[in-house]
Design goal:
With 124 residues, the chain is mainly α. 58% of the residues lie in helices and 0% in strands.
């Protein structure tokens, strides 16, 4: 058996798929860590999935404050993503006027953290 045939035999289609998947996941994680737009689109998708966009928009107040207003109030060291995520989960009243923010306990903590960080990073 030649060295080439041994290599072909040990590389099954399943292993190739797993390698490709692992490479993709590592690239995605690296992109998110660097703030690449992949993460922003993922968080925009989360904002749509959990209907945040019904009350919040990038630069215009609708029912609740815009993403930009939230980032200005809580970003740049004034608050953490964990604090904002907790506020989203528990809801609030009186922080932005008379309209209360309903609690969002159905949103998984990991998604809350992603959304909060996305907002603090400028929702871009």
């Amino acid at each position: 058996m030649t060295e080439e045939s041994k290599h072909k035999r040990s590389t099954s289609p399943t292993k190739a798929v797993l390698r490709s998947l692992a490479t993709f996941l590592l690239a995605t994680l690296a992109a998110c860590a660097s703030g690449w737009p992949v993460c922003a689109s993922a968080s925009q998708a989360l904002a749509q999935k959990y209907t945040c966009v019904a009350c919040h928009q990038p630069a215009v107040k609708v029912v609740g404050p815009s993403w930009r207003e939230i980032a200005a109030r809580y970003g740049e060291g004034k608050g953490s993503a964990a604090q904002l995520a907790a506020s989203i989960k528990s809801g609030s009243s009186g922080k932005w006027g008379a309209m209360p923010m309903p609690a969002q306990p159905q949103v998984p903590d990991a998604d809350l953290q992603s959304l909060a960080q996305w907002v603090l990073d400028g929702a871009k």
